[in-house]
Structure formats: C-alpha cells, structure tokens
Amino acid sequence: MSTITLEISDELAERLQPVAHRLPLVIEMGLRELYAAGAPAFEGATEVLEFLASQPAPREILALRPSSRLQRRIDGLLEKNRTQGLTPEEEEAWKQYRYLEHLVRMAKAKAHLKLNADG
Q1: How far apart are CA 37 and CA 32, in angstroms?
Q2: In this structure, is the dihedral angle defined by the CA atoms of residues 91, 92, 95 and 100, taken in order, positive or negative?
Q3: Which of 71, 86, 98, 113 has the most CB atoms within 10 Å of its CB?
Q4: What is the pLDDT of residues 55-67, one digit of tens each?
Q5: pLDDT over 70 for what percent of the chain?
C-alpha cells in the first residue's frame, strides 16, 4: 500500500467529501476514463455501438463490418503485438476491441436466430 499526498482546491475537496471512503475507486475510475478519452486507440468503436443501439434489422446486423479505419487500427495493434509488444494503453485498447467484437458476435448470433425463427 502506498500513501500519496496532493493539494486540491477547496471546491474539489468539498465535492470529494461524500465519497471520501471510496477515493481509491474514484481515482481508478477516473484514470480509466482519462486513458479511454485520451487514447485514440479506441476510435471507431463509437460508430459500431451507435449502430447497435439504433436497433437495426437482423439482416443489417449480419451485414455489419468494421469501417476501414477501425480495421486498420485493429490490424495495426495485431501487427505491433506480434513484432514489438503493446504499451499499457494499447493493451487496454485491445481489450476494449475484443469486448466490442464479443458484443457484435452476440448481436449477430441473435440476429441469425431471429431470422431463422421468422422463417
């Protein structure tokens, strides 16, 4: 366990007071958000998630493919992982892309079942 001392504004201290007992979690969540927002590595995922959130027809889901930009980013991460290894930020992005792929596969499986059920 480490101890960190930092100076913050009175306003921020006031806002943190109600969650003081959960500060490690607040910091961890803040760091994740910071890394995600600052990492262009996860670009392209928004378009996929927005598409799925629009409740497309089953055939549209089955036709879903990554944009060329997203595919290039994924291919780049795969190649870098094979040749040099990934930075911690890139590793986090790779985990997010794997989870996104999992969501798309689930959506496609359900779309396939729906099409089969509808005959």
Answers
A1: 9
A2: negative
A3: 86
A4: 999 999 999 999 8
A5: 91
| Domain boundary assignment for the chain | 41-118
Residue the block writes with tokens 């007992």: 21
Q: Residues 18-40: pLDDT tens digits?
A: 888 988 888 887 777 666 655 55
pTM of the model: 0.62
DSSP character string of the chain: ---------HHHHHHHGGGGGGHHHHHHHHHHHHHHHH-GGGTTHHHHHHHHHT---HHHHHT----HHHHHHHHHHHHHHHHT---HHHHHHHHHHHHHHHHHHHHHHHHHHHHHHH-
